[in-house]
Design brief:
alpha/beta; Rossmann fold
Length: 246
């Protein structure tokens, strides 16, 4: 049995719902977790780290811009050399925006691509550099409905998510044979968040019927994939409530 306490897990995009649940899940299994958000949200990520540390886990928050190559490089170097060997990297930023095509400026399109695709490339590349030294580890990318279907008004988001899925597939085919597990998770449905509660009350009401995704259940699925035997690895897993159409 692997001693997870000797390794670190980096969660990029450790937001208040799914990212927080993922951080807590891997911390509960013994990992030294490193939740990451933009520097402007450092107080939130530090609060999450404190919550984990105060309940017997180990966590340290980081505030960086995952779109900036030098900041990602420094993050991974610090974690690998000063905390513990990196065994898990989860790329989980949002970037979901709605813009009709004529309202989608070049700035909007590029920014969404940078957040959801380019930052994923940087994170995956740096994770690979360290994991290849040990020929083991998990690199997970969070996708969405937009990863496989471009909807009206979501050209920027879908374009970025399609790109992230392609990155994940290419990395899986390259790294699987050397023992690194790359997987892509399609989150297809509303998640139990404050945003859904405040802006889509009709959808949020489905929570009473298990009709929206629970962050803790999503985190359970990531842990399941992480602990799979090498002879039966999953590359892509889609998650949705039982009543969600697809």
């Amino acid at each position: 049995m692997k001693d997870f306490s000797k390794y670190s897990a980096i969660i990029i995009g450790a937001g208040d719902a799914t990212g927080s649940a993922l951080t807590k899940k891997f911390a509960s299994k013994g990992y030294k977790v490193c939740p990451v958000r933009r520097a402007r949200n450092i107080e939130k990520v530090n609060f999450l780290a404190d919550e984990i540390n105060n309940t017997g886990g180990w966590a340290r928050g980081f505030g960086i811009d995952a779109r900036v190559e030098s900041e990602i490089e420094e993050l991974f170097k610090n974690v690998e050399e000063k905390i513990a060997p990196i065994d898990v990297v989860i790329f989980n930023p949002g970037a979901n925006v709605y813009f009709p095509i004529t309202d989608t400026t070049s700035r909007v399109y590029k920014k969404v691509w940078e957040m959801a695709a380019f930052a994923g490339f940087l994170s995956g590349r740096e994770a690979t550099k360290y994991m290849k030294k040990r020929n083991e580890g998990s690199i997970f990318f969070t996708g969405a409905t937009a990863s496989v279907r471009g909807s009206s008004g979501f050209s920027a988001f879908a374009g970025a998510k399609f790109a992230l899925r392609a990155l994940s597939q290419s990395m899986a085919r390259e790294l699987g044979p050397v023992g690194i597990h790359v997987a892509h998770f399609i989150i297809d449905g509303a998640i139990d968040t404050a945003f859904i509660k405040e802006n889509f009350p009709d959808i949020y009401a489905l929570k009473e019927k298990d009709g929206i995704l629970q962050p803790s259940a999503i985190a359970d699925a990531y842990w399941f994939v992480h602990t799979q035997e090498k002879n039966a690895w999953t590359h892509e897993l889609d998650l949705r409530p039982y009543m969600e159409k697809f």
